[in-house]
Amino acid sequence: MPQQTPLYQQHLMAKAKMVDFAGWEMPIHYGSQLEEHHQVRRDAGMFDVSHMVVLDLTGPAITDFLRRLLANDVARLNASPGRALYSCMLNERGGVIDDLIVYFMHDNGYRMVLNAATRDKDLAWIAQQATAFEVSIRERDDLAMIAVQGPNARDKTAKALGEALAPAIALKPFFAVKSAMMCGDELFVARTGYTGEDGFEIMLPAARAGDAWTALLAAGVAPIGLGARDTLRLEAGMNLYGQDMDEDTSPLEAGLAWTVAFEPAERDFIGRAALDAQRKTGPARKLVGLMLDGRGVLRAHQKVVSTAGEGETTSGSFSPTLGQAIALARVPASAGQTCEVEIRGKRLPARIVKYPFVRHGQPCITYTQTL
Q1: What is the spatial distance between Cα 279 and Cα 358, in angstroms, rounded to a whole number?
Q2: How far apart are CA 96 and CA 265, in angstroms?
Q3: How many beta carbons lie within 10 A of that of residue 219, not counting itself?
Q4: What region, left, alpha or beta, does residue 250 occupy, with left being phi > 0 and alpha being psi -120 to 50 degrees?
Q5: Residues 221, 157 contacting (CB under 8 angstroms)
Q6: Contact, 319 vs 328, CB < 8 A?
Q7: Assign residue 366 a region: left if phi > 0, alpha if psi is -120 to 50, beta otherwise?
Q8: Taking the CA of residue 342 as centre, how many other CA atoms within 13 Å lie in the half-sphere pointing to its CB?
């Protein structure tokens, strides 16, 4: 049986269409995926992301452990409480086990947020690597998590949560803060998200999630399902684990070289040797954006044909903001500006473009903006 988040009853009350996602019963939409997409781009929407895995990591060797475990370097956080870092966790071959966000906490520990679909293998891998370090790892399954996203997200969240959100109002992007909320319960608010819009990701006690959700509804924040979350993140050019990257794909092949800290050279993170070798030769593949010329539907796992060889779409959909089909695709590193995508036995012309496709609600790409 799929698990249910603390907000399950709120989804049923909102007449959500529920689906099994990574072993969780989650809302795919509340009536119209298209309207929900536009709601986030134009106003404010909220997502139940309580299925994600939250870990608190502490101990005298915790920084050394994370500098070994992650491709990005937590030393970049400069011991600044609340500062966040996006990173991949790699295997020895340089493949991506998962992508995640890690926060330096106010009590000198760290908080890590992992994907729900990779929970079991992530926890097993982290526990295996931790045996050589003096660290403590606690899964925070007592917490719920609500993401509020959109151009009006911060104002409406402040209206809904009042004084509880006051310490978070001045947060810079990729920072978080702890705050007290009703009855002394703790709120952890991060200025992060997965939509390409501004907003917050809020972690709070599961018992308080329903109250926060109701307050956000009253402030005019609409509930948004996983369907719109996927089209929003695709327009924003954000990777989805298991599609745009996996254990056989390195960050260099997934457009995530910027998340790898190669300096200092003496930091021996897991997968470094494989990435160093790939840097010397250059990755054979690259992740690009595609825009279809004309009508058609782009989906994952469609063949891409270029003059440099074949590739494959990794994510694809209709872009509600642009009004046309877009995709992410892995193609030969020397692929040029044009290609064809095989759709239902026919090859349709497409352009290879830089992503993201949409930033802060506005199209930021045209057919002439090519790699």
Answers
A1: 29
A2: 21
A3: 19
A4: beta
A5: yes
A6: no
A7: beta
A8: 10
Task: Give the β-pairing of 346-353 and 309-319.
Answer: unpaired
**Structure-block tokens of residue 300:** 């994952």
Read off the pTM: 0.96
Token pair, residue 354, equals: 């830089």
Token code pair at residue 94: 């340089």
Residues 228, 43: contact at Cβ < 8 Å?
no
Distance, in Å, from the CA atom of 167 to the CA atom of 119, rounded to the nearest integer, reads 31
38 vs 150: CA distance, rounded Å: 10
Q: The tokens of 119 are what?
A: 């929970």
Would you state the structure tokens that stand for residue 198, as one six-digit string? 């501004």
Please state, in angstroms and as integers, the Cα–Cα distance from residue 131 to each residue in 92, 134, 248, following that order.
17, 8, 25
Strands 358-359 and 362-363: antiparallel
Q: Copy the structure tokens of residue 268.
A: 């021996």
pLDDT tens sequence across 264-301: 999 999 999 999 999 999 999 999 999 999 889 999 99
